[in-house]
Design brief:
With about 180 residues, the chain is α+β, with helices and mostly antiparallel strands. The chain contains 5 helices and 10 strands, in the order αααααββββββββββ. Strands 1-2-3-10-5-8 form a 6-stranded antiparallel β-sheet, with helices on one face. The protein has a 4-stranded antiparallel β-sheet with strand order 4-9-6-7.
Length: about 180
């Protein structure tokens, strides 16, 4: 799939999720704190959204990130100080979703992630480097081999040390 095809597919998934919820373009833009014109360009496939933008949109829609980004293994996204590659997405019989993502957290800044839906939990295993992550104001440090778990229904952050941190992130979203 080309970059243009991926961008259009993301736009179609956002528009479909918005339509399924009976939400207007203006309402989603307001709730996601992005411009209506920007959202329109994303939905039409004219603009490539960052991970930050996709997270901002996923929250008000009440869907996991991969519902917008794509669930195929190898699907990639990037944002400020963060690169993500989907490893696996599992849909459970009770409606819950588990997303497994390979993260590279780049040095030089903090990646702030908006709150996800109620009951969403994140578990991160640091494979290489050091990472400070968790709910804003309650972050904890983890070195290679360490893991952290938190409820991500509040704003949370990721920050690496002086070198990029490599980690496996598991996000569990409860069923409806």
């Amino acid at each position: 799939m080309t970059i243009d095809q991926r961008r259009r597919a993301v736009g179609r998934r956002i528009a479909a999720a918005r339509s399924e919820r009976g939400m207007s373009l203006s309402e989603l833009a307001r709730r996601a704190s992005i411009g209506k014109g920007s959202l329109s360009e994303i939905e039409s496939g004219q603009r490539n959204p960052t991970l930050d933008t996709l997270y901002a949109i996923a929250g008000p829609l009440g869907v996991p990130l991969t519902a917008l980004l794509g669930e195929e293994a190898g699907t990639e996204g990037s944002g400020d100080h963060l690169l993500a590659r989907v490893l696996h997405v599992e849909h459970h019989p009770d409606g819950a979703t588990t997303e497994v993502v390979w993260l590279t957290v780049l040095p030089g800044g903090t990646r702030v992630s908006p709150a996800h839906g109620a009951g969403v939990t994140e578990h991160i295993l640091v494979v290489e480097g050091e990472l400070t992550a968790g709910p804003t104001g309650a972050e904890r440090r983890a070195a290679s081999g360490d893991s952290l778990t938190w409820h991500s229904d509040v704003e949370h952050t990721y920050r690496s040390g002086d070198v990029p941190a490599q980690a496996v992130l598991t996000i569990r979203s409860p069923g409806a």
